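re: ur question from earlier - yeah i can do the single chain one, its not a big deal. heres the input i used so u can compare w yours
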Amino acid sequence: KVRQILYNESTLCPGGETGRHAAFRALCSQGRGGSNPLLGTNFMKATLTILGSGTMVPTKERNPAAFLLDVGGVRILLDCGHGTLQRMIQYGIDPQSVDVLFVSHFHTDHFGGVMGFIHSRFVEDLYLKQRHKKLLIIGPKNLEKNFETLRKISWPEPHESYPLIFKEGPQKIRIGKVSIEIFRVKHVPWFASVGIRIRFGKKTVVYTGDVGSTHPFADLVQQTKNADLLITEASHEYPTESHYSFGQIEELVEKAKIKKVLIMHIPFTFVKRLKQLVGKKPKFVVGKDGLKINLV
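and the output i got, formated as tokens:
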């Protein structure tokens, strides 16, 4: 019963949050955080919405990686794979409401939707004759350089600009009552990857992005230790150089004393087997687009 209170899982119905204009956004922002007389003044509501729980190959059920964490009046988009913008519109989530964009690495199923996401916000502002909203983008080394490379190709207009703030590599950031820590992750040797640890109130959410089996296990235990919710991958039944296995995540959960795990980056060829592996293990949730997890 306590677990159900801490992790109230439900499916997000399209239309639950509708509209795209400033007046509606003001309404949407209500209830993002605050106090609860039953839980004390330090209580902070947090909701995670899965926008993409799949891989490079999307299906009707699973888009490439994207997760929206709504906590303490701050909206953080964890990765923005191709198709994320359309998924947000489908679920009635206003793209303009995102305050922070985190990029774990540069594969298109995590980074491929970033340019369209930002360019769309820019053009909508022109349509509505409104000021641009600053966007903090956090990610690995060369984040700004890679974004500017893409912009030269798909958004070359030199007189147009958008207020972006880039922060790259391992560091600590505080936004209001939300503390963020960025840590290194080994995924592939072609570019840097990072994970993110988010603390709010007495809760901690960790998102690793994709993790290769060459990542030092002891380091991952330290980075995920005592997490209330770990969002991570288990893409294969057996370890690979660039992806963790379900067995490795099981061991990580035990060693790091993690309370709940959301498995993402699920290939359509592995869904059935993954569900068999998870079975009725109470700490594990198989990710599916539209699922919401409320942390209290």
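Confidence is low (pLDDT under 50) at residues 1-41. not sure if urs matches, ping me
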